[in-house]
């Protein structure tokens, strides 16, 4: 069940949002667990990372939506935040709290449902994936997100994660087939890089988290950079 | 082999011609050093070029090509040391300087053997040398100064450089064919004609390279005028926006006068409060402005938002505008203006039921800056290669503006990607973040 928090000080606007949520559940066959708050302070008082989505009004009497969002982000990096506002000039700094869009009042159902569709799709995408392999006679199951890059080494593949390196009897091609091509790209024929850990690219060098520098080969450069643009662009969309 | 009575160009003269040709370009373009230091380096460079030629003369005939390559390398080094430009551009200039040197040396030698058949280094010979060299190089300087940026930097791409090197090699090859003694349809056999053929071929090569540069300049000018046009168009949009805003304000002012009068006259405090509320509501819209921290971006957004609103499209923007400060205003207008025009146009193809929307997001991630422009669209995407194709009838003129966005982004070392599902079209522009931030290890 998806848990949604609605934070809105104006009773009329709050009713609109709650009605839209009911309408959306009936429309899409979803069931939401909805909690309503009259101010950011009320939400923060009992916040325990127990929401999937927060619908936040920005202009509130006591604690504003932006302050609320910042405080929430300090403890919860995963919850999706959607601002609902009268005046976009406040929402424009939403990038600080990874809220990359907002709804303008009065909120029509069409725009509301469309925004919620996006949030739902984003949540589905965020499912954790794991990779299973055997190294040194031991079975491992690691979080795909923790892989920094894979390196081809003869008949073996080195899996460099944030903390360890595993050596697996396999080929880079076989491993590549198991991983999501949207997140894993070859920067040259011997390395398969997890794009989420690419921290910088200058000229033909790709910097990977942990201080590793990998060469980007000329023929792979364009595709690699386009995939990187797509990957970073997919954040919060 | 060449006739004994017709000696070929002395190596010193060739070296001098090469130095002269290099100087023609060096005196036009931007140099790395102050004039005095440059003069010193120019003297050293000239001597080095003559020395290279003299050393090449000592090589046995089969290694003649090697000697020529050494001379070309020396010219490249001379240009590279003095000029403030990229390696590729220097290669391009070396090709041009080399052909010019060949042309002048050949022309001079043709005149020399005609007027002074015995070829001794006499007073008149030196005068002839000085007159021809000075005349030719001054002429070349004026011709080149017309189309190279004075005190500026030449930029050459791979394609142009390869073309220039090919033209120079072909010119050099054909012009020297007669001297190899090979009996081919393109080589002369009789004395002076050999020199004449060489001069003519070199002249053709020089003209070809000159024309190539001229063409390059024209292409660049056209691109610039296109960018300028889009800037003008956006300024025109801005003008219309301002005009409309002024009209609207004066209309509002007129309305407000009546409301204020009504408030003054009203005795009942509740009605009075309601009137004040209404007044506040009626001007609420005028406060909404984009303030991203980048004035150019704000202006573009403001102008496009006005156009969009007429079509029932709400532009939302979450942006740290300062991240785009590295773009020149012209580039920023080109990129965002084009992208928003496309987004608005595509959004209008869907039903106007309150769901038409364009969303702009601009944020930093590690050492990257991401500008993302999403829009709702009808799900129909015509592709041409890896690019979506415009659906306007005169598609060639518009080409979606994507090419121009991609080119501009590329000049900042960035890249572009397009993502689309059946509801949303998303344009993603990735730029490297200018200054290295120390927080790249955290996420």
UniProtKB/TrEMBL annotation, chain A:
Residue intervals of the HTH LytTR-type domain: 140-230
Source organism, top-level taxon: Bacteria
Keyword DNA-binding among UniProt keywords: yes
Modified residues (4-aspartylphosphate): 57
GO molecular function, a single term: DNA binding
Residues of the Response regulatory domain: 3-120
PROSITE patterns to which the protein is assigned, alphabetical: HTH_LYTTR, RESPONSE_REGULATORY
UniProt keyword terms in alphabetical order: DNA-binding, Phosphoprotein
Protein known as: DNA-binding LytR/AlgR family response regulator
Lineage: Bacteria, Bacillati, Actinomycetota, Actinomycetes, Micrococcales
TrEMBL record, chain B:
Database matches in InterPro entries: HATPase_C_sf, NatK-like_C
This protein's UniProt keywords: Kinase, Membrane, Transferase, Transmembrane, Transmembrane helix
Keyword Cytoplasm carried by entry: no
Pfam families: HATPase_c_5
Name the UniProt record assigns to this protein: Two-component sensor histidine kinase
Source taxon at top rank: Bacteria
Domain Sensor histidine kinase NatK-like C-terminal residue range list: 328-432
Transmembrane segment boundaries: 12-29, 36-55, 61-79, 91-109, 121-142, 162-182, 194-211
A GO molecular-function descriptor: kinase activity
Gene3D superfamilies in the cross-refs: Histidine kinase-like ATPase, C-terminal domain
Span of the signal peptide: none
Organism: Microbacterium amylolyticum
């Amino acid at each position: 069940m998806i848990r949604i928090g609605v934070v809105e000080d104006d009773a009329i606007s709050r009713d609109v949002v709650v009605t839209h949520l009911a309408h959306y559940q009936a429309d899409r066959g979803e069931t939401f667990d909805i909690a309503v708050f009259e101010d950011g302070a009320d939400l923060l008082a009992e916040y325990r990372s127990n929401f999937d989505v927060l619908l936040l009004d920005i202009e509130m009497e006591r604690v504003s939506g932006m302050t609320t969002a910042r405080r929430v982000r300090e403890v919860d990096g995963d919850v999706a935040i959607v601002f609902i506002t009268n005046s976009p000039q406040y929402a424009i700094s939403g990038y600080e709290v990874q809220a990359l869009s907002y709804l303008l009042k009065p909120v029509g159902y069409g725009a509301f449902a469309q925004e919620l569709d996006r949030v739902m799709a984003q949540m589905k995408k965020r499912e954790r994936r794991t990779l299973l392999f055997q190294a040194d006679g031991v079975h491992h199951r690691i979080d795909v997100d923790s892989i920094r890059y894979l390196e081809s080494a003869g008949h073996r593949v080195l899996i460099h994660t944030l903390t360890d390196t595993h050596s697996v009897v396999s080929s880079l091609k076989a491993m590549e087939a198991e991983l999501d091509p949207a997140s894993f790209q070859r920067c040259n024929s011997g390395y398969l890089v997890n794009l989420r850990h690419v921290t910088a690219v200058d000229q033909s060098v790709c910097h990977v988290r942990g201080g590793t520098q990998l060469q980007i080969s000329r023929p792979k450069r364009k595709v690699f950079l386009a995939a990187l643009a797509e990957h970073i662009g997919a954040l919060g969309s | 082999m060449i006739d004994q009575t017709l000696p070929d160009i002395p190596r010193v003269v060739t070296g001098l011609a090469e130095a002269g040709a290099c100087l023609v370009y060096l005196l036009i373009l931007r140099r790395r050093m102050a004039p005095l230091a440059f003069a010193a380096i120019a003297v050293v460079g000239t001597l080095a070029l003559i020395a290279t030629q003299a050393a090449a003369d000592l090589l046995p005939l089969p290694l003649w090509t090697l000697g020529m390559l050494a001379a070309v390398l020396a010219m490249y080094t001379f240009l590279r040391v003095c000029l403030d430009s990229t390696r590729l551009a220097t290669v391009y200039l070396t090709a041009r300087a080399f052909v010019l040197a060949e042309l002048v040396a050949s022309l001079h030698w043709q005149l020399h053997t005609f007027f002074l058949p015995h070829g001794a280094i006499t007073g008149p010979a030196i005068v002839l040398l000085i007159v021809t060299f000075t005349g030719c190089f001054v002429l070349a300087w004026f011709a080149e100064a017309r189309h190279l940026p004075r005190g500026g930097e030449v930029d050459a791409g791979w394609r142009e450089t390869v073309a220039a090197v090919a033209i120079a090699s072909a010119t050099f090859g054909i012009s020297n064919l007669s001297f190899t003694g090979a009996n081919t349809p393109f080589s002369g056999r009789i004395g002076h004609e050999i020199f004449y053929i060489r001069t003519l071929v070199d002249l053709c090569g020089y003209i070809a390279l000159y024309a190539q540069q001229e063409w390059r300049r024209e292409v660049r000018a056209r691109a610039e005028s296109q960018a300028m046009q889009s800037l003008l168009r956006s300024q025109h949009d801005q003008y219309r926006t301002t005009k409309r805003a002024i009209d609207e304000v004066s209309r509002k002012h007129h309305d407000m006068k009546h409301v204020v009068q009504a408030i003054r006259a009203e005795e009942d405090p509740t009605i009075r409060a309601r009137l004040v509320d209404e007044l506040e509501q009626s001007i609420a819209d005028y406060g909404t402005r984009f303030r991203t921290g980048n004035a150019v971006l704000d202006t573009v957004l403001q102008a496009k938002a006005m156009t969009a609103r007429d079509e029932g499209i709400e532009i939302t923007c979450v942006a740290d505008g300062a991240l785009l400060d590295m773009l020149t205003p012209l580039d920023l207008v080109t990129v965002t203006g084009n992208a928003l025009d496309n987004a608005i146009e595509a959004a209008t193809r869907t039903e106007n039921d309150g769901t038409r929307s364009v969303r702009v997001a601009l944020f930093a991630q590690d050492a990257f800056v991401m500008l993302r422009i999403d829009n709702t669209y009808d799900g129909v995407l015509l592709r041409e290669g890896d690019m979506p194709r415009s659906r306007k009838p005169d598609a060639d003129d518009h080409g979606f503006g994507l090419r121009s966005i991609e080119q501009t982004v590329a000049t900042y070392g960035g890249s572009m990607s397009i993502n689309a599902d059946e509801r949303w079209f998303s344009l993603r522009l990735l730029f490297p973040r200018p200054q290295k931030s120390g927080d790249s290890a955290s996420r």
